[in-house]
Amino acid sequence: MTDLMPPPPALGCRSSPVLKQRGQREVFCGLTGIIWLHRKIQDAFFLVVGSRTCAHLLQSAAGVMIFAEPRFGTAILEESDLAGLNDAHAELDRTVQQLLARRPDIRQLFLVGSCPSEVIKLDLSRAAERLTQEFAPKVRVLEYSGSGIETTFTQGEDACLASMVPVLPTTDARELMVVGALPDVVEDQMLSLLADLGIGPVRVLPARNIDSETAVGPNTVFALTQPFLGETHAALERRGARHLAAPFPFGEEGTTAWLAAIAKEFGVSDERFNKVTEAPRRRARQAIAQASEPLHSKSVFFFPDSQLEIPLARFLTRECGMSAVEVGSPYIHDALHGPDLDLLPAGPQISEGQDVDLQLDRCREARPDLTVCGLGLANPLEAEGLSTKWAIELVFTPVHFYEQAGDLASLFARPLRRKNILGMAAE
Amino acid sequence: MKLTVWTYEGPPHVGAMRVATGMTGLHYVLHAPQGDTYADLLFTMIERRDHRPPVTYTTFQARDLGSDTAGLFKTSCQDAYDRFQPEAIIVGASCTAELIQDDPGGLAETMGLDIPVIPLELPSYQRKENFGADETFFQIVRHLAKPMERTERITCNILGPTALGFRHRDDIQEITNLLYELGVEVNVTAPMTATPSDIAKMGQAHFNVLLYPETGEQAARYCERTFGQPYTKVVPIGTGATHDFIAEIRDLTGSTVELDTDRLRQTWWSRSVDSTYLTGKRVFIFGDGTHVKAAARIARDEMGFEVAGMGCYNREMARDIRAVAKEYGVEALITDDYLEVERAIEALQPEMILGTQMERHIGKRLGIPCAVISAPVHVQDFPARYSPQMGFEGANVIFDTWIHPLVMGLEEHLLHMFRDDFEFHDAAGPSHHGGHAPKPLEPAASEGGSMPSEVAHVANDPVQDGNVIWLAAAEKELKKIPFFVRGKARRNTETYATQKGLAEISLDTLYEAKAHYAR
Predict the structure, then answer these.
(1) B chain contacts of residue A78, beta-carbon cutoff 8 Å
(2) What parts of chain A have a pLDDT lower than 70?
(3) Domains along chain A?
(4) C-alpha distances out from residue B357 to A417, B361, B370, Å
(5) Which of A28, B165, B438, B446 registers the highest number of CB atoms within 10 A of its CB?
(6) More confidently predicted of B467 and B331
(7) A91 with B1: Cβ contact below 8 A
(8) Closest partner residue to A92 among B1, B64, B448, by Cβ?
(9) Are A266 and A199 in contact, with CB atoms under 8 Å apart?
């Protein structure tokens, strides 16, 4: 079923030495995931227990106030809450009561821990238990940490999903679970591909609401759509589920390999697989070919941001004709990133963690044609004559699976096209 | 604990960043966990700065907490000193670092750096962004400024402008020019544009011009006490305030230079007959205290509006704004709770909001035009063109900014005459509001996802409002009234009905109320 795919490189990056540095990290904390999770889980409210900084981060990361009254908020700790933890718990109960009275439509409440709540050791799991009892069966209260001292950016989604795994119902059914928050339109495309392959029933995590039929057990196999779900991966294995390792579904090759791993597990014939995937694969290749033209023979440098870097570097090098100079990721998990590292041709510096000043020095030295970095670095690097792509857009935009493969290439091509149009091509 | 959805101000260390980023040659070493670097994007994205803010974050993680976060701080501080070679360093803690009590100031002091190290104490769980900026600037001045001989010619310092300030960039230019025309040179503008060595020579100036009390008042008071420099009390936003400011400068300097006010168009634009339709428009004003105070005066005395309500989000200005509100015969709303502001606007049904980006959003939901007068800032508040708020050009800019969201004179009449016209239906919206996107019928529901908010329920419940019931015919007639005055019509009619002790509103009640309120 994978005969149409280009062969893997003779030497991939899986055994390449990894540069690990420690210093200032120019990344978001895990609270940022709330921005997309609260849209995805439609009956959930995310209550950050934190400081004014947390509230300010959420507001700034959301960019503008998109939502009239969003399903997230911050219980801002004040001087009096720091004095006594008992009082802080009473205050939290009061805040939750107030919130749930105001929003009777909420069925799941996530208490989200922050740096300050963790430093003062405010036990949110105790609070979640207490509040679940108080509001059951109408509202389920869970907790996870999105703090910067524990989580980097997309690890917030990981922590959120991992917190849901222990309360999933148990099933013995042989089922496929697809894990990772996707935009609804992309999720529907994926479900329809899997249905055409004759695979079902398919459960998703996170589900759109609490009444979904997502359950887990020893006969569950799961596939990840996002490369940052290490904790969720471990939590599902603890419930007896088995992971189907595969490259992540970015681009034509990634999507095909991801689907192929599932098809193999469910005994789908090559003939059927090819029949189902042929048309979308052709469309994806065509779209990538059109969109990636400005990327050919260009070099790319990834600052660590979302853990999407390795799969995306694989996509850009193997499907868009780019070469990678450095691929930085906040964390690298072999179980998750291994299949993509196998496909990424050896050569680039793989780095984990960050000392931003040293990494900027390397980037300036390399003068890559395209630098993928966070919003804090993009304009300063543009001012130095580099072309940049904001990493956060890759998390906020539908980029998975065949029909988005062309869009994904366009996201990277746009900064280069723009420079051309404005007559200021790099170099 | 306080439940917060949107905030008007960031934490105090963001205020300190605004000071540091506005200056050059100063570096800020901030003891902070991973993630606090988000604040960089405020400057690089919203303000489109082409440099990273001069801030080094220690970026501690959970595993560091048990070990040596203090060592981490010292390493970061040394690295920042070596790499950036600043003239001075400010050191402090963000909210989380405040809890672990490493004392960045004390640690930095033991390092024996050969440049001034200024420790900041910014209580994150009590105070906010404006305080952080004000306190940081004050500490910098206190540590660096020295008494000096006055300059031979009359000079002043301009105090208060920071990075990420609402139009500070252009206000500086406008006021510098105005002062120059009056024969006063600017010695130092700070914090924005200043280096630590500029701060050191602030004592040379004869007096200070305090443009932004929110971020510069402590420093101004300190200079008055320590260097005997008086500071200006009028903030020159609006025509009247600018004239008062000029008078204040003349008092301080004895300047008698005639000023050319030809470029002040606002006064004539406001007097021209086309502006008649502005008369008595009910406006609600909200923002930081300084801008609200200025806007109220402009609204009433220079635009001919009626001030229907006002308030500010920074408690530091509460007393001022309460006093001003009293003068205008309204109750001041002092709150940093966005939902409370929304409720106040909904209850008052003003014809226009002069507010922040938050109120612009409220206005969008309630169908009330809004002009932005104050921080918190948005990328739109950093226009490419010269666009000050202060001085004569500022008065011109404000006139334009405020009338653009309104339905213009003749258009208003046409909408009244042809209110049943199929193209004037509610969903069409006024012609100048951009795009042809139909106005959503239930804005809260469509913007807030599948679950309409509580607020939306109140707004969309046409029949039951208080104890007065709208009869079907009256309700239908109300819908024919153009949307931009419908809120006022509804409110007036209900008030009228309540005053008359009526339980129901009929078609007649509607028109009796109209006659009653005619002006």
Answers:
(1) 1-2, 125-126
(2) 1-4, 63-69, 424-427
(3) 18-25+283-421 (3.40.50.1980), 30-151 (3.40.50.1980), 175-276 (3.40.50.1980)
(4) 33, 6, 9
(5) A28
(6) B331
(7) yes
(8) B1
(9) yes
Kindly give, in sequence order, each residue whose CB lies less than 8 Å from that of residue A198, ignoring residues fewer than 6 positions away: A266, A268, A272
For B165, the token pair is: 């300030």
Domains B145-253 and B266-406 are alike in CATH topology = yes
From the candidates B274, B400, B421, B426, give the one annotated as an active-site residue: B274
Is-contact B193 B172, C-beta < 8 A? yes
Confidence band for B487, pLDDT divided at 50, 70 and 90: confident
Our CA-based measurement puts residue B447 at a distance from the nearest CA of chain A, in whole angstroms, of 6
From CA A121, how far away is CA A143, in angstroms rounded?
14
Q: Which residues of A touch B60 (CB under 8 A)?
A: 149
pLDDT of residue B491: 83
**For testing contact with chain A, the best of B9, B31, B38 (most A CBs within 10 A):** B38
Q: Does A149 touch chain B (CB under 8 A)?
A: yes
Confirm or reject contact between A53 and chain B (CB < 8 A): yes
Tell me if the bond preceding B147 is cis, omega within 30° of 0: no
The arrangement of strands across the sheet holding A388-390 comes to: A18-22, A349-354, A323-329, A299-302, A370-373, A388-390
Per DSSP, what are the bridge partners of residue B16? none
Residue B128: which of A52, A68, A378 has the nearest Cβ? A52
pLDDT above 70 for B427: no
Which tokens belong to B261? 């006010």
How far B469 CA sits from the closest chain A CA (Å)? 25
Active site residue B274: yes
Residue in chain B nearest A383 by alpha carbon:
B50
Domain ranges within chain B, ordered by starting residue:
12-132, 145-253, 266-406, 462-519
Structural tokens at position B488: 């006022």
Average pLDDT over residues B96-119: 95
Does domain B266-406 bear CATH number 3.40.980.10?
no
Distance (Å, whole) CA B395 – CA B18: 26
Does A98 lie at the interface with B, CB-CB under 8 angstroms? Answer: yes
B-facing residues of A in 340-359 (CB < 8 A) are 357
User: In Å, how far is A56's CA from the nearest CA of chain B?
Assistant: 5
What does the pLDDT read at residue B425?
53
Is it the case that residue B485 has pLDDT exceeding 90?
A: no
Contact B503, B468 (CB under 8 A): yes
Q: How far is CA A161 from the centre of its chain?
A: 11
B371 pLDDT more than 60: yes
Quickly name the fold that domain B12-132 has.
Answer: Rossmann fold (3.40.50)
pLDDT of B239 strictly over 80: yes
pLDDT reported for residue A4? 61
Q: Give CATH for domain B145-253.
A: 3.40.50.1980
Q: Does A92 touch chain B (CB under 8 A)?
A: yes
pLDDT digits (tens, 9 = 90+) for A42-87: 999 999 999 999 999 998 877 655 555 689 999 999 988 888 777 8
- Predicted confidence at residue A83, as pLDDT, reads 80
CATH architecture of B462-519: Orthogonal Bundle (1.10)
Mutation target vs A (from B36, B67, B96, B129; most A CBs, 10 A cutoff): B96
Per-residue model confidence (pLDDT) at position B458: 34
Compute the CA torsion angle B170, B176, B177, B181 (nearest 10 deg): 160
The answer to whether A93 faces chain B, any CB pair under 8 Å, is no
Report the Cα–Cα distance between both ends of chain A, in Å, rounded: 43
- The helix (run of H) or strand (run of E) holding residue A175 is strand A175-179
Q: Is there a contact between A52 and B7 if contact means CB atoms under 8 Å apart?
A: yes
Rounded to the nearest integer, the mean pLDDT of chain B is 89
What number of other Cβ atoms are within 10 A of residue A6's Cβ? 10
